[in-house]
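Blinded run. Sample ID left blank on purpose so nobody reads anything into the name before looking at the predicted structure. Input follows.
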Amino acid sequence: MLPGERRNRILELMQANRTMTVKHLCDTLEASEATIRRDLALLEEDGKLERTHGGAILTHPTKLEYEESFHQKESHYATQKRAIAAHAFKLLKENDSIVLDAGTTTYELARLIGQSKLRITVITNSTILANELTGNPNLDLIALGGKVRLHTQATVGTIAVETLHRFNVNKAFVAVNGISADHGLTTPDIEEAAIKNAMMSVAVERIVLADHTKFNRVALCQIAPLSMVDRIITDHDLDSSLATVFEQQGILVSLA
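Blinded prediction complete.
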C-alpha cells in the first residue's frame, strides 16, 4: 500500500471509530509501529487528527447525515449498551423518580428496571420502553402522550413536552446520537431534541447514556449544551484523552 493510500485508510478508520490506537492501526493495516506513528504525525500536521498517548482522535466532529431506526440501532454495540445500562441501574434508589427517553441504551435500562422489584416512578415517551417496564410490580409508570414518531417509537410534540413540564424528578436518563465538546448533545430530529431537552430540564441530575461511537459526532439538532449534563456513562472503549475533554467541563465520566 502506498503511503498516501495508507493515510487515507487511516482517516477512513478514524471516521468510523472516532478514536484509534496505534496497535489497532498496525494490525488493521499490516504496517509497523514506526510507519503508523509517522503517518499520524503527518496527518496531525495537516490538521486532520490529534495524536494522543498510544493513538489518535479526530479533531473535528463527524456530521451525521442518516438516522437509523430504533430496531436498526438495537443490535449495534449491544454488549456495551447492556454494560452502560447496568452501571446506570446501580444509581437508582428506592422511591426515585426518573425520566427515560426513547433510546436503545435507555431501553436496556428499562429492561433491568422491569425485571426488578425496585419501588420507583418512571416517566417515559417510548412505547417500546413502557412495555419492558411493566414487569416490575412496584413501578409507577407514566407514559407521555402525543404524536408518535414511528422511526423511534417516541412520543413527541407539544402535548408530550407540556405534560412533562408538570413533573419534577430526581434523575433524567437520556440517549443521544452525538456528543461533542463544541456542539453539546445532538439528535437528527427537532421534535426529539425538544422532548429530550425538556426531560433534562425537569430533573435534578441529568445523565447521558452513550456508547463510545457517539462521541465527536454532531447531528442536525442540538438537544442541550454540555452545561446541562451532570454525568455521562459510556463504555471502556472511549479514549481516555477524549474523556478528559468532558471532565474538564465539570462532567463526571463513568466507564461501564
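Unblinding after everyone has recorded impressions. The first helix runs from residue 3 to 17.
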